[in-house]
């Protein structure tokens, strides 16, 4: 069993209050970790350490030295790859191939890529005319924003946390991280990595705990936290935005989605079925970019539904380490209750259940885990909460459409605007539709193909701001203009 403490000023420390909480495995509900529960005192210590570190050894590093150190962080993650995989599997219960091929390598990449971006991206310079004819030169200088509060979710814990910590540190900031209470393990391991490669004390801090009236809220309310980057539910974002208003702190929000997949009759059907299968069911549907609403052009509707059903019914449920397992449980019993409530709601609202709709029979210990069947529905009205609200589970609703215009209107009929995936072999149509779907990220004939130099974020209630590439620098640095009169 893991014993998880806070990581403050380069040391692993328990809460002064002695308070702890337990983390249970999603697979069989057994306790996998005992975690120190942070309160105001631990947040105060962590923020003070982070503030102090802004002026010490860390600030004195040249950009080149900082970049090299972050490369070493990435290399050490790679050396300890198996430890990260095992920890993330214990937290999430997801199959090992998801950790090995996606979540952990991306965590390491988040340090390398942003270090390289900081080294290579120029700032702006403008020459201006002046009445005396001599002119003036303006140039931009980026400096770190300060102490960044990082509030992270549970669905891809290491990837999403490092997606923020990587650029924040690359830009010379210090961080206080609050991992999700569901998934504290890899943030703690990262503390060991930081010490091993010699990242100065206080640069990376972790306080464990919960959200409201706990470590999460205390970080977002702390006057010495200069900016807050958050990934999680839109409702939580609302609370954090209120906290950030005190002291006018900057926020970057990556929040929920109710993403549409649009499948045209002229698509490559096999690729579209594979793509929608992955986007709806990878990570047991717990992906913010995942597809919960699928719109399929009528001539191929029946064929598409049948093919997706076949794929869904071929998944293998089981322990993450077992050979051939490609589908895991939901993160917690509580989340399962939420997802099952939507399964019930779909029934009440008259859905046709194409497959799934309940809880699978799991053998032995696994029966105690938070398993749900992957589920496909048809025939729901668009007004149903199942179509309007983010479920964050392994499920999708499929509805036919008859024209491009109708598909666009259906896709846009949502309070969210995170991502969409469009399937067509008609390039002109792909461009037309991509331009009109109101989301931050559109994929054509693919899904989750991520180039970390590109803008990432959501429109409407899916987010505020963009991270990725130079956009991360916009958030994690303060751009100062220097104007020199010639
Ligand atoms: P959540 O909002 O419940 O929790 C996220 C984090 O916020 C946790 O660490 C939690 O403890 C903390 N928190 C909760 N209340 C808080 C408060 N009042 N003040 C400060 N911190 C608080 O989200 P979750 O359930 O962990 O994650 C799933 C959600 O995240 C889904 O809605 C999903 O769409 C979204 N998500 C979005 C993206 C994206 O890039 N847009 C990526 C992944 C997940």
TrEMBL record:
GO terms for molecular function: oxidoreductase activity, acting on the aldehyde or oxo group of donors, NAD or NADP as acceptor. Residues 13-482 form the Aldehyde dehydrogenase domain. InterPro entries: Ald_DH/histidinol_DH, Ald_DH_C, Ald_DH_CS_CYS, Ald_DH_CS_GLU, Ald_DH_N, Aldehyde_DH_dom, OHmuconic_semiald_DH. Keywords: NAD, Oxidoreductase. It comes from the Bacteria. SUPFAM superfamilies: ALDH-like. The active site is at residue 254. Pfam families: Aldedh. CDD domains: ALDH_F8_HMSADH (cd07093). Gene3D superfamilies: Aldehyde Dehydrogenase, Chain A, domain 1 (3.40.605.10), Aldehyde Dehydrogenase, Chain A, domain 2 (3.40.309.10). PROSITE patterns: ALDEHYDE_DEHYDR_CYS (PS00070), ALDEHYDE_DEHYDR_GLU (PS00687). Belongs to the aldehyde dehydrogenase family. PANTHER family: 2-AMINOMUCONIC SEMIALDEHYDE DEHYDROGENASE. This is 2-hydroxymuconic semialdehyde dehydrogenase. It comes from Marinobacter nauticus (Marinobacter hydrocarbonoclasticus).
């Amino acid at each position: 069993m893991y014993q998880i403490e806070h990581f403050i000023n380069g040391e692993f420390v328990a809460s002064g209050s002695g308070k702890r909480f337990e983390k249970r495995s999603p697979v069989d509900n057994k306790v996998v970790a005992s975690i120190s529960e942070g309160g105001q005192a631990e947040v105060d210590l962590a923020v003070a350490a982070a503030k102090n570190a802004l002026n010490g050894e860390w600030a004195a590093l040249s950009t080149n030295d900082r970049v090299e150190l972050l490369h070493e962080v990435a290399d050490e993650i790679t050396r300890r790859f198996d430890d990260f995989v095992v920890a993330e599997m214990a937290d999430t219960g997801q199959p090992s191939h998801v950790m090995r091929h996606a979540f952990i390598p991306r965590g390491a990449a988040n340090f390398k890529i942003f270090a390289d971006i900081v080294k290579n991206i120029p700032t702006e310079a403008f020459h201006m005319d002046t009445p005396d004819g001599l002119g003036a030169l303006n140039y931009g200088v980026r400096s770190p924003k300060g102490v960044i509060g990082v509030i992270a979710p549970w669905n891809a814990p290491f990837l999403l946390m490092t997606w923020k910590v990587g650029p924040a540190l690359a830009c010379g900031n210090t961080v206080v991280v609050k991992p999700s209470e569901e998934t504290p393990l890899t943030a703690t391991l990262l503390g060991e990595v930081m010490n091993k490669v010699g990242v100065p004390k206080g640069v990376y801090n972790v306080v464990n705990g919960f959200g409201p009236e706990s470590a999460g809220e205390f970080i977002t309310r702390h006057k010495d936290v200069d900016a807050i980057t958050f990934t999680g539910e839109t409702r939580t974002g609302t609370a954090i935005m209120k906290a950030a208003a005190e002291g006018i702190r900057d926020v970057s929000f990556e929040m929920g989605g109710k993403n549409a997949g649009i499948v045209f009759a002229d698509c490559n059907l096999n690729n579209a079925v594979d793509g929608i299968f992955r986007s709806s069911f990878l990570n047991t549907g717990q992906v913010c970019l995942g597809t919960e609403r699928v719109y399929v052009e009528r001539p191929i509707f029946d064929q598409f539904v049948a093919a997706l059903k076949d794929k869904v019914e071929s998944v293998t449920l089981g322990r993450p380490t077992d050979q051939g397992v490609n589908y895991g449980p939901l993160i917690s019993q509580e989340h399962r209750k939420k997802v099952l409530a939507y399964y019930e709601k779909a029934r009440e609202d008259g859905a046709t259940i194409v497959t799934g709709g309940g809880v699978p029979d799991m053998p032995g210990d696994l029966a105690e885990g938070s398993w749900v069947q992957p589920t496909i529905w048809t025939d729901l009205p668009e007004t149903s909460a199942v179509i309007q609200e983010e479920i964050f589970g392994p499920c999708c609703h499929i509805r036919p459409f008859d024209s491009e215009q109708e598909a666009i209107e259906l896709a846009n009929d949502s309070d969210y605007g995170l991502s969409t995936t469009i399937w067509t072999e008609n390039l002109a149509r792909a461009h037309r539709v991509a331009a009109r779907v109101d989301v931050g990220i559109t994929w054509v004939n693919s899904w989750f193909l991520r180039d970390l130099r590109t803008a990432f974020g959501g429109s409407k209630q899916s987010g505020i701001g963009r991270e990725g590439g130079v956009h991360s620098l916009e958030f994690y640095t303060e751009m100062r203009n220097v104007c020199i009169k010639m």
